[in-house]
Amino acid sequence: MSISCIAIDDDPHSLENLIAYMEKVPELNLVQTFTEPLQALAEISMANPVDIIFMDVEMPTISGIELAGLLRQKAKYLIFTTAYPRYALDAFKVEADAYLLKPYSILHFTKTINNLFPTGNTDQQPLSIFTDHYFYIPLHNENDELVRVNFDDLIAVEDHKQDINFITTNISILSAKINFAKMINMLRSHPGFIQVSADVIISKKHIKSVLGNQVLLASEVSFNIENSHRSLFTDFINSNALKGSS
What we know:
- This protein is of the alpha/beta class.
- It has helices at 12-23, 37-46, 64-71, 88-93, 106-116, 181-187, 227-240, and strands at residues 3-8, 28-34, 50-56, 75-82, 98-101, 134-138, 146-150, 154-159, 163-168, 172-176, 193-195, 200-203, 207-211, 214-217, 222-224.
- It folds into two domains: 3-130, Response regulator (Rossmann fold, 3-Layer(aba) Sandwich); 134-240, CATH 2.40.50.1020.
């Protein structure tokens, strides 16, 4: 299987490192590289789509986020490569499929590619965005600070109409839904999470007990299980219940 790729990075050293990693993955076919984002925009706009576009974020004239918005339809998968974690939220908005934080290792690089193109399967794996097992939430304060959330610490997610409430073992954080709409869709199919109502997704590992229609989670968090989701939840509990000897 040949995976066609384009790499865009204004830093020649970073571009060289990316090319070196790509050469270690035989399936990757580097079609073209660019150090000038406007040149990339002009040429890629007129070219045939490719499987992957690797793109830096901070570039002159036009940012990688802006460029991605113009070229997203030209790649099956979009992978950002950047030294700045604060752009992860913007990556969600332009439907990025992965986010490589510089300096990333060859192991991290190949794992990302394998998530997108598992052996013998050309379909995307829905959880590729979770490769790093953490994400950042903006606090929306005057300093625009970010809070890192590890998926292992995530207890539940409440989907409000305009906002998302992330409940962790340490803190609850409310953020704009537009930043995390793609994440919510992926959490619904994540094997470590299960939906208990139209608006609530919980972590399976943080379930402490189930009493009737109520599920109690870590940090004394609890939710009601809606009838519409009871069958799926009951199947999960039954499949993990300790069976007595016959």
